[in-house]
TrEMBL record:
Cited Pfam families: GFO_IDH_MocA, GFO_IDH_MocA_C3
Ranges of residues in domain GFO/IDH/MocA-like oxidoreductase: 145-259
Gene Ontology MF terms in the entry: nucleotide binding
Taxon lineage: Eukaryota, Viridiplantae, Streptophyta, Embryophyta, Tracheophyta
Protein name (database record): Oxidoreductase
Annotated family: Belongs to the Gfo/Idh/MocA family.
PANTHER family: OXIDOREDUCTASE FAMILY, NAD-BINDING ROSSMANN FOLD PROTEIN, PTHR46368
Organism: Psophocarpus tetragonolobus (Winged bean)
InterPro entries, A to Z: Gfo/Idh/MocA-like_OxRdtase_N (IPR000683), GFO_IDH_MocA-like_dom (IPR055170), NAD(P)-bd_dom_sf (IPR036291)
Domain Gfo/Idh/MocA-like oxidoreductase N-terminal: 6-125
SUPFAM superfamilies given in the database record: Glyceraldehyde-3-phosphate dehydrogenase-like, C-terminal domain, NAD(P)-binding Rossmann-fold domains
Length: 360
């Protein structure tokens, strides 16, 4: 059985890599085969602290892991400014690619990553975990049900948390040379993906950034938002921030129904997640309460959402490795659409909050 498991190596010892290393260990069709850092000692310490199996290899350079022919796939949690170089190199070494979000500094960089993946015939997926939770599939089923939800009219999403002073000074997400997209790239990515999910991944026509974002002294976004408009009248708004209390909400409103989620990025509980869905909700006669209220839907899972992501990634890699299948294009396409909207928000900010048209 072990030889049929997809062997996944971790390129870098970022904090998020702790969570993903656990997920690889929990996924039934994947194996944690190694970790690389710029120093052998750091990689060894990371492996020891995060439950890597004794069989896992430790590499003192990223190149050494990427050049190892026993490694099927890699997870890259490096700062966004490094994605282009290392993701392309991974693909050129025939490594299937699980890449941390945001996938690139802009869509032009991401297209170069995709070109390298397509040239080598390797699978690409980004590390947006919540979309692999079974709750998300249940939410999408409701949103696409014409009888219960109707046609989408508007979406509001937010992801905020109050970062401490050390984070705001030293975290890579506030450093222009590392993760220069700041809160927009980190939390905004999730908000945009939620909006696209509600819109069945139809791109908006126009994006307008909200006035006025909060930037740090180096020009990195700490707090921002935007409005998105579709030609058929749909509208969406989002807010992302390092400067407000922890909140991660989706509200999607249709002609017949409404969906509410209050923990969409990280569920309150690892093994179960809920959402509220209401159809034809209404007041009572005296308008002192609701005659018909939304219903709570709870979905359970035996694996956490990050392990489900790894399981899906490893399944697609196995299809290529053992059945000579072609890489699946669903996930790269969704990643690219998310990046396109993110780029448009950034462009609108830079242009003084002018409307920006999205061109695929």
């Amino acid at each position: 059985m072990a030889e049929t498991l997809i062997q996944i190596g971790v390129v870098g010892c970022a904090d998020i890599a702790r969570k993903v290393s656990r997920a690889i260990s929990l996924a039934p069709n994947a194996a944690l085969c190694g970790v690389a850092s710029r120093s052998h000692d750091k990689a060894a310490a990371f492996a020891a602290a995060n439950g890597f199996p004794l069989s896992a290899k430790v590499y003192g350079s990223y190149e050494a892991l990427l050049e190892d022919p026993t490694v099927d796939a890699v997870y890259i949690p490096l700062p966004t400014s490094l994605h282009l170089h290392w993701a392309v190199l991974a693909a050129q070494n025939n490594k299937h690619l699980l890449l941390e979000k945001p996938v690139a500094l802009d869509v032009a960089q991401f297209d170069r990553i995709l070109e390298a993946c397509e040239s080598s015939g390797v699978q690409f997926m980004d590390n947006t975990m919540w979309v692999h939770n079974p709750r998300t599939a249940a939410m999408a089923h409701f949103l696409n049900d014409a009888q219960r939800f109707g046609n989408l009219k508007s979406v509001r999403t937010c992801f905020t948390f109050g970062a401490d002073p050390d984070y705001l000074k030293n975290n890579i997400r506030v450093k222009p040379d590392l993760d220069g997209l700041g809160s927009l790239g980190d939390q905004g990515w999730y908000c945009i993906r939620a909006i696209l999910l509600a819109a069945n991944y139809e791109l908006p026509k126009t994006v307008v950034a909200s006035y006025e974002p909060v930037l740090n002294k180096d020009g990195v976004i700490l707090d921002c938002g935007a409005s998105l408009y579709w030609e058929d009248g749909k509208v969406a708004t989002f807010h992302c921030s390092f400067l407000a209390n922890l909140t991660m909400d989706i509200t999607a409103i249709g002609t017949r129904g409404t969906l509410h989620v209050h923990d969409f990025v990280v569920p309150y509980n690892e093994k179960e997640a809920s959402f509220l869905a209401g159809t034809d909700t209404s007041f009572n006669d005296l308008v002192t309460g609701w005659a018909k209220q939304p219903n709570k839907h709870t979905v359970t899972t035996h694996l956490p959402q990050e392990a489900l992501l790894v399981r899906e990634f490893a399944r697609l890699v196995a299809q290529i490795k053992f059945k000579n299948s072609k890489p699946d294009k669903k996930w790269p396409t969704i990643s690219r659409k998310t990046q396109l909207v993110l780029d448009a928000v950034k462009a609108s900010i830079q242009r003084g909050f002018e409307p920006v048209q999205i061109q695929e």
